[in-house]
Automatic annotation (TrEMBL):
Disordered, as annotated region: 238-264
Composition bias type Basic and acidic residues, residue spans: 243-255
Protein name, per record: Ribosomal protein L1
Pfam families associated with the record: Ribosomal_L1
Upper classification of the organism: Eukaryota, Sar, Stramenopiles, Oomycota, Saprolegniomycetes
Domain of life: Eukaryota
Length: 264
């Protein structure tokens, strides 16, 4: 089983933080508030499965990356009172809104309303039973901004708050239909050691959801929205790592016997 090299990851994180610090110093005269930059980890796959899902997959991380951003939870109409009562007894830091499907449909049907809702919260959660309804209601605005709701299981659970904290304490991944996908893994305001921990442990948890895991991973890089991508892993060249279709075609070609030439 392959794994990331801690020394290589640390060097990349230090270089990235130095780059961001230098860039921030150049902008310090214009910027009134220093905002933490989100660090993303970018995976490039060798082959891409035919069927992909845009469903958010929760990923556990050893260190919280969300800071003080507020969260909104979408629930079934009939469950709102039960869930709010539970959260009143055991509050979850950061979760400031519980919204029913009925209210979402009634108050946020217009594009501008959806855009305002998207901007009002840092993260959205949804009862996994109503995800299909919510996806159609929030629309393309949320998906383009990578803010599609992350599923949580609140069905009859006594430990609803614990489960929500676990989801909020991590991150989420979306397996795109292309060869590359990225995951928010840290921010530059974190200690270097904590960023490295998140990258190494987060990578293990992420690849557990990728078909063939390490064997299907061509490269891994880290970057922010305005930095270059810094490599932390590159697979060794291997001619056997071909798409399934190509392998099948090559096998057929190798077993094909040419017809004898016709006599003149």
């Amino acid at each position: 089983m392959e794994q990331l090299d801690t020394e290589q990851v640390t060097k990349a994180v230090v270089a990235l933080k130095q780059f961001l610090k230098k860039k921030q110093a150049q902008k310090s005269k214009q910027a009134l508030v220093d905002e933490n930059k989100t660090i993303q980890i970018i995976f490039t796959r060798i082959t891409v499965p035919r069927n992909e899902s845009l469903k958010a997959i929760p990923i556990k991380l050893p260190h919280n990356i969300r800071g003080d951003g507020e969260a909104c939870l979408f629930v079934k109409d009939s469950d709102k009172d039960r869930i709010k009562a539970h959260l009143k007894d055991d509050p979850v830091a950061g979760l400031t809104k519980v919204m029913t499907i009925k209210k979402l449909k009634k108050n946020y049907s217009q594009f501008k309303d959806k855009r305002e809702l998207k901007a009002a919260y840092g993260v959205f959660l949804v009862d996994d039973r109503v995800l299909p309804y919510v996806k159609s209601l929030v629309g393309k605005t949320f998906f383009d901004a990578k803010k599609q709701p992350t599923t949580v299981n609140v069905t009859g659970k006594k430990n609803i708050s614990t489960h929500i904290r676990r989801v909020l304490g991590g991150t989420e991944m979306f397996l795109s239909p292309g060869p590359c996908f990225n995951v928010k893994i840290a921010h530059d305001g974190m200690d270097t050691a904590d960023i490295v921990d998140n990258i190494i442990q987060g990578t293990k948890n992420i690849l557990a959801h990728v078909p063939k895991g390490w064997k299907n991973t061509k490269s891994i890089n880290i970057k922010t929205s305005d930095s270059v991508a810094l490599p932390i892993y590159n697979a060794l060249p291997n001619s056997s790592k071909l798409p399934v279709e190509d392998k099948k075609r090559k096998a057929e070609d190798s077993t094909h016997t040419p017809l004898p030439a016709k006599k003149a």
